[in-house]
Triosephosphate isomerase (Duganella vulcania), 248 residues
Amino acid sequence: MRRKLVIGNWKMNGNRAGNTALLSGIVSGLNDFGADCAVCVPAPYLAQCQAELQGSPVAWGGQDVSVHASGAYTGEVSAGMLVDFGSRYVLCGHSERRAYHKESSELVAQKAIAALAAGLTPVVCVGETLAQREAGETEAVICGQLQAVLGVIGADDLAKIVVAYEPVWAIGTGKTATPQIAQEAHALLRARMAQKNATVAAGVQILYGGSMKPDNAKELMAQPDIDGGLIGGAALKAADFLGIIQAV
C-alpha cells in the first residue's frame, strides 16, 4: 500500500517572517492524516526550514539541484549542499525549469542521478502543454520525459524516486485535469516504470501537480494511481495546504 505524499512547492515566494507563520501553522495543524508531507523551498530558506521543522512530521527540500558536486558553477546549488541543511527531497525537471531555463530531459536525468548519489529523493516532474495534449501527444511527451530518467537508473534507484505529473495547461490557470484524465496519465507513467521493474513500479509514489486544492484533492487522490500532490499556490496558505493533506 503506497502512503500518500503531499509536497508544497513554494516556487520563488517567501520571506523569513511569513515563512515562520506558514510553517508554524502547518505544524500546529497537522494530525495523523495518513499522509507524509514536505515543503520544497527557495535555497536561502533551507536553513530556516531546518531550524523550524526539525523534529516535526514535515520534511523539506530544494526546488532544483546541480549535476555537479562542486566547482566553478556560480549560482548553482549542489546535492551535498541540500543534504547539509537536512533536505530529504529535491524537485527535478519542474515544468518551469524546463520551459524558462530550457532544461532537457537528459539534463533532468543527470540531476536525478546527482540527487540519488547524495541520498536525496528526486521528485521527477513530467507533463505536457495544452498544444501537446490537443495534438494527442500526451503519452509520448510524458513517457519520453520519464524514460530519460529510467534509462540511466537501476531498479534499486527506481524505488528511491517520486514522480510528479504536471499537466502544464493546468498549472496556475485554475484549470484542473478531471480525476479521470489525471488517472489516465498516472497509469501510463506507472506502466512505463513497470517495463523496467513491475514490482518496484507498483510502489513508486506518483503525485498530481496541476492546481490541486482542498475542494478537489479528495476526488483526485481517490484514483488508484494518484498518490498525493505537488502543490503550488495552495501550499502558501497553511489552511489550504492542511486541507489537501486532510483530504487523504
User: Anything to note?
Assistant: Strands lie at 4-9, 35-40, 58-62, 89-92, 121-126, 162-165, 206-208, 228-231. Residues 4-247 form a domain with the TIM Barrel fold (CATH 3.20.20.70). The longest strand covers residues 4-9.
